[in-house]
Design a protein that fits this description.
single chain, elongated, 7-stranded antiparallel β-sheet, 6-stranded antiparallel β-sheet, Jelly Rolls, alpha+beta
Length: about 260
């Protein structure tokens, strides 16, 4: 076979007219469609978070103390798993307590809050202090477990890595608020049946919080429409004789509110 001669065998395979390319388009389209189908199936089969609670729910006197029910914990929190939630600590009645009880997963772990140090106290195969959880501010807390390794992240950033003495016990009951101890709120509780890498935790924080780091519950359409008035013949803008009302998206709010 002569690859360099214009009359060689290779030259004969090069399309010379548009009609010679008619077979290529269906093949390329078919390959692209197959790739898209494979990608869609792959994405569909990936474990998704189970949002057990959106909230916000009051920590001191919740209507329902359960934030992750027993069927979810028994099916997802086995071996490797991830738990994420937003918490807003407003105040602690007795700030002298080293660890004021906040959440519990009986037989697996307990979570408290140290008000003077502004840190969470997680008892999970040992006692771990998780700093950077200030009062009067929304904070996303993430716990990832794989084998004996526990990663604790705050607002998408890794803060602590803890090695337990043994693998974590399998959850046999729900995760609940310990009421009557902390004034505050909890929101957007999510669980995954796997250990999320740090990049996914950071991405989740970015997608579930607003520009102030608060949990994002979606646009408040009701308030937006309440701030609008219907136009009429004599007042096309609908604001004549009244002060203009800015929609929530244009109202500046103090970041620690």
């Amino acid at each position: 076979m002569n690859f360099f001669s214009p009359t060689g065998d290779l030259y004969s395979y090069v399309p010379k007219t548009p009609s010679d390319l008619s077979w290529a388009a269906p093949v390329v389209i078919g390959i692209v469609l197959i790739a898209i189908i494979i990608y869609v199936i792959y994405v569909y089969l990936q474990p998704r978070p189970a949002s057990s609670l959106v909230g916000p729910v009051d920590l001191y006197s919740p209507g329902n103390a359960v934030i992750v029910d027993r069927p979810t914990t028994s099916s997802l929190l086995r071996g490797s798993y991830t738990l994420a939630f937003y918490v807003f600590i407003n105040a602690v009645p007795d700030s002298g307590i080293t660890s004021t009880p906040m959440l519990t997963c009986p037989g697996v772990w307990d979570l408290g809050y140290n008000a003077p140090q502004e840190q969470l106290i997680w008892r999970i195969g040992g006692t771990v202090a998780l700093p950077n959880v200030p009062a009067q501010r929304w904070t996303q807390v993430v716990l990832t477990v794989e084998g004996r390794t526990v990663d604790m992240l705050v607002n998408g950033a890794l803060i602590k890595t803890h090695t337990m003495n043994n693998v974590a016990a399998i959850a046999a009951s729900s995760i609940s608020i310990v009421p009557g101890n902390i004034y505050g709120r909890i929101a957007i509780v999510q669980t995954w049946p796997r250990r999320l890498p740090m990049c996914e935790v950071a991405s989740n924080y970015a997608s579930t919080s607003d520009s102030q780091g608060r949990p994002y519950f979606g646009p408040d359409f009701i308030n937006v429409f309440n701030g609008m008035s219907a136009p009429n013949t004599f007042c096309p803008t609908g604001n004549c004789g009244t002060a203009p009302v800015a929609p929530p998206t244009m109202v500046w709010e103090f970041p620690y509110a």
